[in-house]
Amino acid sequence: MAELKKRIAILFGGRSAEHDVSRASAANVLRSLDPERYDATPIGIARDGRWIVADVGNDAGAGGTALVIPDDGPQLALLPGGHGRALAFGGAADAPRELPAFDVVFPVLHGPNGEDGTVQGALELSDVAYVGSRVMGSAAAMDKDVAKRLMRDAGLPIVPYVAMSAATPIAYDEAAAAVGAHEVFVKPANMGSSVGVSRARNAAEFEACCKLAFRFDSKILVERGLAPIREVECSVLEDAAGQIRASQLGEIVPSDKHGFYSYDAKYLDADGALLQVPANVPEALADRIRALAIETFGVLGCEGMARIDFFLHGEQAYVNEANTLPGFTNISMYPRLWEASGLPQSELMDVLIGHALERQRRLRALAFDRDQAS
Hints:
The protein is α+β, with helices and mostly antiparallel strands. The protein has helices spanning 19-32, 118-126, 135-142, 144-153, 172-179, 203-213, 263-268, 283-299, 333-340, 345-373; strands at residues 6-13, 38-45, 51-53, 75-78, 86-89, 97-99, 104-108, 129-130, 161-165, 184-188, 198-200, 219-224, 230-238, 244-254, 273-276, 305-313, 316-323.
């Protein structure tokens, strides 16, 4: 008897500034799922927070670059404790209707309200398997201040930084003294894709940088600027047996006109950066970075997958951040690094989904054992 297809819900869109990146990532995930093994349903999260059932046959399903969230599509609600059961209502339907239960939810979301533990908490309450880190790992990695504190306490190398809020501002001179450099980078604490990140070399630039970063978060970070610097990334993957491995390294080489790997260089300028895979890094240093990536994965409580980003200053590697739901666009490093490491994206999907299913099985067994023990 043929094995029944697993029903996969692909969550994409979201309320963060990375909404459009998520739509592009989800299209690639959809195309990478083996239709002989998986029955996929895209669920778009609109900018106003509604969960809307999208159409697999839209532009992205036919080879387009991004999934579309229909304005008039039926809204979806996962049932608490429902093991993946969901109701669809509105749209063309006259009354709410129950959809076949999802086996796994694949969140393809970036930034706040998606990568920070909020959606993961909703999926935990729904008692459904899902891809990626759980609530704690997602939240800890998303908040750059919290993540850097955990990494620093674990002895991992990080770039000197200071955090501040609008209620407790820090002057440029004070920030520069705290991080030990006059050139600093200012960034929102809870944002990805280099959104809101800018560079300051004097008090006037610093004020403008802080104003930009505060548009995206109530807490911002000021980091020491390193020069010269290289940006290297490593993909980490956990399988169903709990084995954790690190990929080859990739390097981001921004063009001179951007100066660093900004949002524009990543997504708006086709010539904004060169993605070099594998990175031109000596073997011993590459091995050390891969070991640091796996250690960072564990320190932050990540599960399933993460892309760990590093700064290289000479032979010194610094952990920059961990992305628990990395991009899956056609130029994104996470799947590209696994491709270069011998794992095609379709097989990568199998590993991620297999990990989600096995973790859920173990969690349900733990809950059963607690009931029996009481």
